Amino acid sequence: MYRLLQLLHSYRAFLLLLFIEIVCIWLLVRNNPYHSAAYFHTSNAIIGNIYQTRNNISQYFKLPSINEELASDNAQLRELLSQSQVPIVVKSEEDSLELTKNVYNQEYLSAKVINNSVQLKHNYLTINKGSLNGVEPGMGVISANGIVGKVMSVSENFATVASLLNIDVFVSASLKRNNTFGSIRWDGSDILQTKFMFVPKHIILEKGDTIVTSSYNSIFPENIQIGFVDDFSLADDGYYDIDINLSNDFSNLAFVYVIKNPYREEKSELENEIQPGNE
After folding, report:
1. What is the DSSP letter of 74?
2. What is the mean predicted confidence (pLDDT) over 87-112?
3. Nearest-angstrom CA–CA distance, 107 and 101
4. Whole domain around residue 130: which residue ranges?
5. DSSP one-letter code for 239
6. 177-185: long-range contacts at Cβ-Cβ below 8 A with a sequence spacing of 24 or more?
7. Is 54 exposed, middle or buried (CB count within 10 Å of its CB: 0-12, 13-18, 19+)?
8. Widest distance between CA atoms in the chain
9. What separation in angstroms does the CA of 216 have from each of 185, 189, 195, 203, 219?
10. By C-alpha distance, which of 189, 183, 138 is closest to 159?
11. Is 245:88 a contact under the CB 8 Å cutoff?
12. Of 4, 63, 148, 200, which cross-links 141 as Cys (Cβ 3.0–4.6 Å)?
C-alpha cells in the first residue's frame, strides 16, 4: 500500500494532467454536436469490431458442433427427399395407393468419421454411431458426394464400415444415361478410381458418363452417385474395362449418413431362398 501511494505521489502531475484532459474531452463531446457524433461513430466502430472478433473466435470453437448439426439436418432432408420420390399409382381399387407406402422410406442417420484408412487393400472407417443408435451390420453408408461403403460390425457406440476402397466390396451400379447395370469393385490400385464391371461391348459409352447405384440391391437406394467414366477399352471377355473417377474423396471424409432401410432384411432373405439349380 505504501508503494502504491508513493507511486501515485511520484506521478501526481501526470495523473492530474490526464484527468483534466479527460474532463475537457468529455465536456467537448457533451456540448459539441459534431464532436459528439464523431465520437460515437468511432466508438461504435471499435466496439463493433471487438464484438465481431469475439464472435469469430467463438464460432471457430463451435465449428464441430455446428458441423454435426448441419449433418443431422442434411440427414433429415435426405429422408424427406427419399420419401417424396414415390411413383404415382392410378387408383383403380380402394387400396391401390397402399402399393407406394413405405416402399421407398429410408431413414438417414448422420455420423462422424473418427478413423479411416485408404492405404490398404481392405480399407475400413469407423463412425461414432452404433447399436444404441439403431445401426446394424449390412446397412449402407453414404456421404454428401456419393456412396461410402457397408457397415460390417457394430458395438453400442461405434461401427466399422468397409469402404468402397475394399477389394471385397461389390456394389450393384448402373449407367445413369441408359440404365445399363453392372458391378463396382475396387482393384486396389488408385484411391481416386474404381472399376465398373460386366458392361457388354454393344453398350455405347462416353467419357464423363455418370455411374449411380442401381435398384438391384437392398443396401443403397437407387441413383446415389458413385463416380464418372474416366476411360474404357474392350477386354478379351466381351466386356468393357472401365475406369471410374470416384465422386468421393475417401482421404477426406468427415461426416457420413447411415441408411436404415426397414425392408432390407426381408428383401435379402427372400432373394437368398433362390438357390442355384432351382430353375
Report:
1. H
2. 53
3. 14
4. 109-271
5. B
6. 177/206, 177/209, 177/210, 178/203, 178/204, 179/214, 181/214, 181/216, 182/242, 184/211, 184/226, 184/244
7. exposed
8. 108
9. 16, 27, 18, 19, 9
10. 138
11. no
12. 148
Residues 115 and 242 in one domain: yes
Q: Model confidence over 169-210: pLDDT tens digits?
A: 999 999 999 999 999 999 999 999 999 999 999 999 999 999
The vertex-18 CA angle with 12 and 19, nearest 5°, equals 90
For residue 26, the SS3 value is helix
Q: What 8-state DSSP symbol labels residue 214? A: -
pTM listed for this prediction = 0.66
Q: How many helices (H) and strands (E) does the chain have?
A: 5, 12
Cell (9 digits) for 184: 463396382
User: In this structure, is residue 97 part of a structural domain?
Assistant: no
State the Cα torsion 266-268-274-276 to the nearest 10°: -170
Q: Which residue intervals of 62-134 are DSSP H helices?
A: 63-84
